[in-house]
Specification:
Order of helices and strands: HEEEEEEEEEE
Mean pLDDT: 76
Radius of gyration: 23 Å
Low-confidence stretches: 1-5
Strand content: 35-45%
Number of helices: 1
Largest sheet: 5 strands, mixed
Shape: elongated
Length: about 140
């Protein structure tokens, strides 16, 4: 408590009362704005795609992840084995921007259903799951 009071007194002594009040008001306005216009995730063409191919191999499918909110959107990939965060860096999408996510999908009879899971900071969509129908070669 003493440390906090001495730091507060130092801040007021350095900036003055008016400067300290201005700093507090600026921080409150920033916090209020971040609550008023949060990030909003939009996925195009949707969260599920179908795959049809001429034979076994690898196909690439594209998802467009857009941020229609006023704050940056952060997506962190979940590790499919443990549902913990993946070690890959998060995807950060500024307001009004779109991120192209190309996913390579193995096409074979034995291939599992491809699923990618993310945690987001969108309050209306805290989790995102992208799936692709089981890829099978056309016969």
């Amino acid at each position: 408590m003493h440390f906090f009071l001495s730091r507060s007194f130092l801040l007021i002594a350095t900036m003055g009362v008016a400067g300290t009040l201005w700093l507090a008001q600026s921080w409150c306005n920033h916090f209020r704005q971040s609550l008023a216009d949060p990030p909003r995730l939009h996925v195009d063409p949707g969260t599920q795609l179908s795959v049809e191919t001429d034979g076994p191999g690898v196909v690439t499918r594209r998802f467009r992840l857009s941020n229609r909110g006023g704050r940056r959107l952060i997506l962190s990939r979940l590790n499919p084995d443990c549902q913990c965060l993946d070690s890959s860096p998060p995807i950060v999408i500024p307001p009004g921007e779109t991120y192209i996510l190309d996913l390579d999908i193995s096409v074979s009879e034995e291939a599992p259903v491809p699923t990618w899971r993310f945690l987001t900071n969108d309050p209306n969509r805290p989790r995102l799951t992208l799936t692709v129908d089981r890829p099978r070669p056309q016969t």
